[in-house]
């Protein structure tokens, strides 16, 4: 076989040396190779070199790549393409196949690296570690121009073999360096006697290691110290407990902590959570419950059962003595009101007393016997009823004093500075003479109705519905007026128990405040029940009040309409018309206005449950302007507005305006006002005339007789009921001039002149005994008295006035 091989080599060498007789071009060679591939003679892939003048097989390419890796250990794919002279695409493809088939190779960031390369790098790192004790993996990665993760993954399997070091937190440390740092961690940890955060311990250790390594040393990560600490703790070289990885509690501190808790709890029978926090125990309740199963946790303290027994004894004595106790006063200052309340609920005596309703707890810490509270409440309840009555009647107008003032006698001869008469006087004089001021006008005689006709029986119900339509806010305000305020209740409690005043009324946690809050709803319910009873009692009175008011207004308003018709006779005399209008407004109109306003006010109070004396609903009412305004203000809604309009019209100068506003208010109130028809007018005039004839026949005062005679003449002549003040008598007589004969007219004018003279003398008289005007007054009065029969004959005697 060797001889044959040698022969073949010689023939091949000869063939290579022989020069061809025919030379092929590059194009011919390429075409020839393509033809051989088409014929299947060449059945494998051929790759072109970058020059295009050579062919190379894929197997040869892989062999050359493997040879370069074996020679260099770390080679770039790009460098392989340049070295071999094949396109980068084919080199990358074949390099991937080479790495895939050889587990000792790795392709990283375009570079093929063998394990032998990493072994040599590991040996170099180990040599450097012996010099500097520690190296950062990031530093090595930067020098090798690879990632830190790759370096770390390569070094980990070689630690302890090729690399005599410890990898921790991205740092390589020699065993000697680790032992040195371990000794530092052990010493620093054993020097701690109170709970500490290990993060604060590693900072000075880092500084110490940095000084030990010098300026070229690398900073040590906290994780390195922590791992050493965890190892030492696991090996029980340090005693204590580690919580959340960084909170270290030495066993010496835990022992001292438990001894302190035991001492405090055994001496005081309680311990506060605040003191537990100071001892470094965060979960105090769990700690104490596990250590003292018989104890009771409260809001701020943990107590022994003996504390409950002590409080139970104190509260039991207070309940039996029908007294009260503040449980905080018998407990230490560290106890809160919540603690006291929970303890009270655990006391057997308190539990039984609460169940039997013999005691109650106020403000969490105050225990009061039911008898003690009832004694205070009974006394305050009586005073609260008095307060409610006083509050409900405060706005009620008492007309009795005004009636007495108004009915006092006023001299008829005063000209200036005289007091005003309010409303209708008791006298039935029809009018006074001219010299009497407007404000001293006598009231007119009333016409009497023969028989009142039936009226709408639903007027009372209508008034109730109107008054009941008020707003809820008004109701609430009225209810609040009769409910004693908190300050009043607390004052009455202090009056009953003076010792409560020591806590003060401003302290929201005082027993005074809590007891007042407890009694206030009871007082409100009591007053509401009482008011409900008053409502029931007032229902009948309200019906009677409306009936009486309707009766009074029926007669008075018909008279007002009758008197209004007489004003039409003086529409041409403006000055006299103004006087007559104002006179009628200040007399009859004022009376019916006061009656209506007072009746509505009383009805409103009765409906709201206010107690009103029986006499106040029956007395004659005489009001001034301010009182009428106050009554109008007390009404509700549209009633108040219409009442204000009525008061304003009463102060005006026109009777017709007053009549409109009066009708509006009466209609709003549900009252029915009768309209004066012809039949009623004749009936009233007949009654009024009969009354005047009776008064003229019996009148003995010569001054008062003149006004009644003039009124009677107007009825006979004009069929009108005239209400004239003294100032308008002269104008009224002048209005009769064309209706009387000369002698009758002369009798009237002479009598009126003599009356004016008499009143002037009486006004100028000083009243002294030797006053010279007394004789003249007597003479003039005698003259008038002598003329009285002649004056009466004008309306009663044979001399009859001429009819138009």
By DSSP (H or I, 4+ residues per run), the number of helices equals 32
Q: What class, by secondary structure content? A: mainly alpha
Q: Could you name the ranges where pLDDT drops below 50 across 5 or more consecutive residues? A: 395-474, 798-804
End-to-end distance:
188 Å
Q: Could you describe the largest sheet, including whether it forms a barrel?
A: 3 strands, antiparallel
Q: Can you count the beta strands?
A: 17
Tell me the Rg in angstroms: 63 Å
Walk me through this protein's architecture.
The structure is a single chain. This protein has 32 helices and 17 strands. The protein is mainly alpha-helical and 804 residues long. Strands 3-5-4 form a three-stranded antiparallel sheet. 61% of the residues lie in helices and 7% in strands. Residues 395-474 and 798-804 have low confidence and may be disordered. The termini are far apart. Helix 7 crosses helix 8 and helix 29 packs parallel to helix 32. This is E3 UFM1-protein ligase 1 homolog. Residues 547-676 form the E3 UFM1-protein ligase 1-like domain. Keywords: Coiled coil, Transferase, Ubl conjugation pathway. Belongs to the UFL1 family. Residues 681-793 form the E3 UFM1-protein ligase-like C-terminal domain.
């Amino acid at each position: 076989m060797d001889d044959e091989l040698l022969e073949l080599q010689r023939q091949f060498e000869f063939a290579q040396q022989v020069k061809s007789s025919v030379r092929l071009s590059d194009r011919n060679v390429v075409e020839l190779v393509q033809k051989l591939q088409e014929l299947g003679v060449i059945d494998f892939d051929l790759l072109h070199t970058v020059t295009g003048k050579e062919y190379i097989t894929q197997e040869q390419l892989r062999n050359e790549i493997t040879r370069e890796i074996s020679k260099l250990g770390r080679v770039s794919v790009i460098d392989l393409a340049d070295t071999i002279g094949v396109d980068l695409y084919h080199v990358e493809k074949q390099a991937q196949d080479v790495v895939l088939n050889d587990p000792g190779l790795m392709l990283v960031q375009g570079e093929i690296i063998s394990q032998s390369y990493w072994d040599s790098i590991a040996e170099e790192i180990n040599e450097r570690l012996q010099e500097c004790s520690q190296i950062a993996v990031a530093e090595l990665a930067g020098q090798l121009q690879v990632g830190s993760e790759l370096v770390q993954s390569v070094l980990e399997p070689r630690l302890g073999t090729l690399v005599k070091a410890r990898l921790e937190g991205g740092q390589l440390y020699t065993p000697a360096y680790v032992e040195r740092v371990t000794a530092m961690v052990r010493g620093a940890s054993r020097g701690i006697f109170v709970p500490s955060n290990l993060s604060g311990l590693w900072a000075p250790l880092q500084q110490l290691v940095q000084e030990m390594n010098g300026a070229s040393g690398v900073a040590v990560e906290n994780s390195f110290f922590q791992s050493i600490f965890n190892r030492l703790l696991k090996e029980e070289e340090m005693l204590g407990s580690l919580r959340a990885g960084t909170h270290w509690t030495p066993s010496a501190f835990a022992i001292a902590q438990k001894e302190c808790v035991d001492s405090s709890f055994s001496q005081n029978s309680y311990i506060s959570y605040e003191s537990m926090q100071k001892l470094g125990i965060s979960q105090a309740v769990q700690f104490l419950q596990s250590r003292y199963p018989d104890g009771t946790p409260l809001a701020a303290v943990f107590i022994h059962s003996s504390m409950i027994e002590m409080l139970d004894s104190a509260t039991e004595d207070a309940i039996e003595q029908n007294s009260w106790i503040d449980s905080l006063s018998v407990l230490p200052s560290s106890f809160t009101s919540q603690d006291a309340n929970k303890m009270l609920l655990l006391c057997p005596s308190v539990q039984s007393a609460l169940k039997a309703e013999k005691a109650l707890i106020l403000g969490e810490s105050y225990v009061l016997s039911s008898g003690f509270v009832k004694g205070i409440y009974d006394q305050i309840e009586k005073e609260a009823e008095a307060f409610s009555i006083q509050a409900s009647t405060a706005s009620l107008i008492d007309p009795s004093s005004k009636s007495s003032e108004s009915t006092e006698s006023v001299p008829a001869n005063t000209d200036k500075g005289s007091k005003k008469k309010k409303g209708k006087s008791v006298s039935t004089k029809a009018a006074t003479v001219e010299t009497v001021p407007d404000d001293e006008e006598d009231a007119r005689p009333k016409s009497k109705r023969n028989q009142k006709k039936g009226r709408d029986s639903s007027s009372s119900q209508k008034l109730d519905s109107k008054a009941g339509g008020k707003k809820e806010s008004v109701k609430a305000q009225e209810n609040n007026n009769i409910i004693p305020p908190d300050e009043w209740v607390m004052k009455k409690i202090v009056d009953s128990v003076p010792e409560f005043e020591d806590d003060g009324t401003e302290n929201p946690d005082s027993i005074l405040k809590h007891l007042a809050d407890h009694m206030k709803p009871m007082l409100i319910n009591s007053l509401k029940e009482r008011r409900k009873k008053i409502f029931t009692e007032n229902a009948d009175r309200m019906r009677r009040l409306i009936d009486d008011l309707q009766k009074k207004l029926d007669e008075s308003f018909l008279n007002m309409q009758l008197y209004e018709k007489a004003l039409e006779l003086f529409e041409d005399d403006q000055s006299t018309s103004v006087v007559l209008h104002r006179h009628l407004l200040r007399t009859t109109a004022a009376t019916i206005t006061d009656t209506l306003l007072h009746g509505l006010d009383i009805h409103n109070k009765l409906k709201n449950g206010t107690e009103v004396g029986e006499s106040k609903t029956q007395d004659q009412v005489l009001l001034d302007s301010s009182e009428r305004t106050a009554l109008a203000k007390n009404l509700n809604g549209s009633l108040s507005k219409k009442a204000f309009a009525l008061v304003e019209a009463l102060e005006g100068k026109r009777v017709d305006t007053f009549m409109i506003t009066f009708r509006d208010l009466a209609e709003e109130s549900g009252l029915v006002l009768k309209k004066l028809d012809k039949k009623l007018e004749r009936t009233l005039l007949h009654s009024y005339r009969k009354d005047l004839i009776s008064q003229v026949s019996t009148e003995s005062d010569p001054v008062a007789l003149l006004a009644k005679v003039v009124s009677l003449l107007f009825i006979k002549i004009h069929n009108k009921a005239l209400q004239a003040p003294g100032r308008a008598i002269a104008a009224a007589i002048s209005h009769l001039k064309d209706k009387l004969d000369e002698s009758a007219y002369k009798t009237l004018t002479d009598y009126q002149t003599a009356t004016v003279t008499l009143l002037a003398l009486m006004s100028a008289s000083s009243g002294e005994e030797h006053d010279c005007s007394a004789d003249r007054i007597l003479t003039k009065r005698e003259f008038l008295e002598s003329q009285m029969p002649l004056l009466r004959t004008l309306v009663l005697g044979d001399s009859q006035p001429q009819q138009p």
